[in-house]
Amino acid sequence: NNNIPGLKNALALIFMAEGIPMVYYGTEQAYNGGGDPNNRESLWDHMNTRSEMYQFISTAVSSRKRSKPWEHPIEYLYYDNEVLVIRRGSVIVALTNVRWRVQR
What is the pLDDT of residues 17-29, one digit of tens each? Predict the structure, then answer.
């Protein structure tokens, strides 16, 4: 649904949660998927390593490697219906399920 901030929040949680993070094919290009045959968009001819999502995932992977969250328990610092703040070791992540709107 083109909610890139929401996708980034979900990915940040995946990279900080317990277990091995799984990223679906095409997420790094922000592919939308869809019904057959759009659910298998070509990746190899359209790989953009400068895309916003590719850069975000690359940064998340590097951060995960440096901070080694698997060596630390998850601490829930704050949560309500819209916000989740967790810490693993020295890394604190604040996540939200609220889609930001620009007020004019």
Answer: 999 999 988 888 8
